């Protein structure tokens, strides 16, 4: 299979790309920075895996159209994400829109670009990387929470629209994953809440989670691979929650 992963040079994205490559699939690492892409692709090729890179702006229609022209994709992993933490009244409007564009409109337009080919071949797997914040809310994250909540609804609609073909659309929703993006959130939350970074981890991030642990990127990668397996053929429009029991409360 040919697998395209957006945000592929980051912690979660590269873990997913690496796992699919190790399983013998051809992976396309899509991201914004050519140097970072080249570095990650070289790491995979050095291990004997099949990998290529693609400079892709998920908020740009021309960039998306170009990607669809270049590649016949069997598995699309919508992983690209950004974060900004602020009270709504302090939230720059352009930053609010950017988060929606990257994490909701981007996955929608990429799916729109690749679904026709998937339908023609009668096979496709679209995996959206959501978040615990697709299910619950936290203060100071209005744009992120709005985008991730919207992603669930979008996934269900597109799954229904393509139920007549061997195409599935599902969303993986992990609790906090220790990535550079989360590291930045810890510092921002510490500032907003007047806490130390360790207090943010203990009192905000892991407090609602019975298992009291960050989710590992390999858990997300293996869940994504499962969604492409024969055992998940009829699993579509679903939300797979990796939250250590958080939402059971």
Automatic annotation (TrEMBL):
<protein>
    <submittedName>
        <fullName>3-hydroxybutyrate dehydrogenase</fullName>
        <ecNumber>1.1.1.30</ecNumber>
    </submittedName>
</protein>
<dbReference type="InterPro" id="IPR050259">
    <property type="entry name" value="SDR"/>
</dbReference>
<dbReference type="InterPro" id="IPR002347">
    <property type="entry name" value="SDR_fam"/>
</dbReference>
<comment type="similarity">
    <text>Belongs to the short-chain dehydrogenases/reductases (SDR) family.</text>
</comment>
<dbReference type="GO" id="GO:0003858">
    <property type="term" value="F:3-hydroxybutyrate dehydrogenase activity"/>
</dbReference>
<dbReference type="InterPro" id="IPR011294">
    <property type="entry name" value="3-OHbutyrate_DH"/>
</dbReference>
<dbReference type="InterPro" id="IPR020904">
    <property type="entry name" value="Sc_DH/Rdtase_CS"/>
</dbReference>
<keyword id="KW-0560">Oxidoreductase</keyword>
<dbReference type="Pfam" id="PF13561">
    <property type="entry name" value="adh_short_C2"/>
</dbReference>
<dbReference type="InterPro" id="IPR036291">
    <property type="entry name" value="NAD(P)-bd_dom_sf"/>
</dbReference>
């Amino acid at each position: 299979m040919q697998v395209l992963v957006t945000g592929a040079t980051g912690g979660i994205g590269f873990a997913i790309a690496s796992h699919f490559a190790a399983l013998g699939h051809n992976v396309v690492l899509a991201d914004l920075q050519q140097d970072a892409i080249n570095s990650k692709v070289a790491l995979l090729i050095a291990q004997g895996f099949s990998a290529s890179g693609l400079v892709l702006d998920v908020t740009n229609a021309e960039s998306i159209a170009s990607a669809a022209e270049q590649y016949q994709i069997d598995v699309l992993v919508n992983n690209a994400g950004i974060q900004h933490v602020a009270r709504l009244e302090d939230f720059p409007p352009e930053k609010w829109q950017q988060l929606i564009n990257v994490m909701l409109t981007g996955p929608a337009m990429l799916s729109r670009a690749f679904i026709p080919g998937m339908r023609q071949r009668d096979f496709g797997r679209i995996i959206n990387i959501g978040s615990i914040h697709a299910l619950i809310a936290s203060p100071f994250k209005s744009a992120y929470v709005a985008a991730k909540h919207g992603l669930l609804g979008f996934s269900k609609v597109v799954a229904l629209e393509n139920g007549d073909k061997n195409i599935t659309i599902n969303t993986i929703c992990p609790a906090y994953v220790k990535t550079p993006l989360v590291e930045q959130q810890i510092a921002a939350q510490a500032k907003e809440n007047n806490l130390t970074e360790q207090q943010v981890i203990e009192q905000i991030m892991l407090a609602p989670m019975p298992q009291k642990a960050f989710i590992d990127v390999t858990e997300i990668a293996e869940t994504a691979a499962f969604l492409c397996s024969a055992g998940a053929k009829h699993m579509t429009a679903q939300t797979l929650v990796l939250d250590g029991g958080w939402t059971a409360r």
